[in-house]
TrEMBL record:
It comes from Crypturellus soui. Signal peptide: none annotated. This is PDE8A phosphodiesterase. The keyword Hydrolase applies. The keyword Cytoplasm does not apply. Keywords: Hydrolase, Metal-binding. Residues 1-119 form the PDEase domain.
Length: 128
């Protein structure tokens, strides 16, 4: 009933649509683990290339944390989840009840945390 009331207002429907677009844009930590790892690698590589190019051209480095020689991908993912994802998706889950998505988020956070605790900076642990 409360969801129905929220959806009756045109302003609320626009806000919900904007929130959906934003959530979709940054939802990688809510995907199944293997997809999350794959896309974290692709996104990191894009940022590494940007940082490389900024350095090459003598420009200010916009994201110094994405220096490919010093970056910890697990730390970057943990920070991203802590600062941007958790509160937004907790709110979305309260509104729309998304247990699978929230489980993926929890699993992925634990995965990145585990790599970080092992002082690994890569996408995956080394083969054993």
């Amino acid at each position: 009933e409360s969801v129905k009331n929220v959806l009756t207002s045109p302003e609320n429907r626009i806000l919900i649509k904007r929130m959906l677009i934003k959530c979709a844009d940054i939802s990688n930590p809510c995907r199944p683990l293997q997809q999350c790892i794959e896309w974290a690698g692709r996104i990191s590589e894009e940022y590494f290339a940007q940082t490389d190019e900024e350095k090459r051209q003598g420009l200010p480095v916009v994201m110094p944390v994405f220096d490919r020689n010093t970056c910890s991908i697990p730390k970057s993912q943990i920070s991203f989840i802590d600062y941007f994802i958790t509160d937004m998706f907790d709110a979305w889950d309260a509104f729309a009840d998304l247990p699978n998505l929230m489980q993926h988020l929890d699993n992925n956070f634990k995965y990145w945390k585990g790599l970080d605790e092992r002082k690994l900076r890569s996408l995956r642990p080394p083969p054993e």
